[in-house]
Structure formats: structure tokens, C-alpha cells
Amino acid sequence: MANPRKKRKVTVYLDPEVERFLADFAARRDQSQSMIAEAAIASFLSPDDAEHREAVVARRLDHLDRRMGRTERDVGIAVETLAVFIRFWLATTPALPEPAAQAAKAKVGERYEAFIIALGRGLAQGPKLRQEVVEDVSGSDQ
User: Fold this and answer.
1) What does DSSP assign to residue 46?
2) Which of 5, 22, 103, 118 sits a CA distance of 20 to 30 A from 72?
3) CA atoms within 13 A on the CB side of 135
């Protein structure tokens, strides 16, 4: 920073909310508003500040990209799991005779309610399907 005796007065206009943030920050740090404003302006104008901000943004974008990749993979696993289950169920479940079909239709609501409760419990306590799949596959390889 410049020598304090050579400092010059500059007038700036701040939004009232920004001015309040500056005053609150200065009070918490027990520093002058002028010193904090000078440090903030110097940091903002420093040549490496733009590079620093770019690096921060790049890291955040990389993190988001990895999360999106995992989400995409998880959705793919879920869709494939559902497709395999439907194919398996259709191939192995015989059609019910008429009296049994009517009895099954009467139980649909009750069975669906039990399914939703079990699903909620499974989602709340885990483990996640992808963990089970990895564990099952790893266990069968050994």
C-alpha cells in the first residue's frame, strides 16, 4: 500500500446496503471503513485477481460437471434397473384367472400404500442402489 501521508481523498457513491455492509464489517474488524475499502479496491484491481476468480469459477464448474456426471450415471442405472425389472416381471408372472384378478384389483390400493411406505423407508435409511450393485458385483467377482 502507499505511504499514508501520500494518500488522496476519493469520493465514491455506494448503494445504501453496500454502505451498511461496509460499516458493519469495519465495526466487526475494528478497522476503518477507508482501510477496508482501500484493501477491497486494491484486491479487485490486482492483476492476479481476475486469474484467481477464473480459477475459482473453473473449480466450481468442474465440481458441477462431476456431480452432473454422477447424476447422469445414477439416472441411467435407475432407468436400466426399471427396464430389467419390467422385462423380468412380464416374462415370469403369469396372468391371473378372472376371480383372482378381481381379488387382486381390490387389494391394489393397500399394496401400493405398502410399496410407498417401503420405498420411503429405503430412501431414508439407505444404502443406495448403486452401492448395493457395486457390492453385489464385487462380491460375485471374488
Assistant:
1) S
2) 118
3) 6
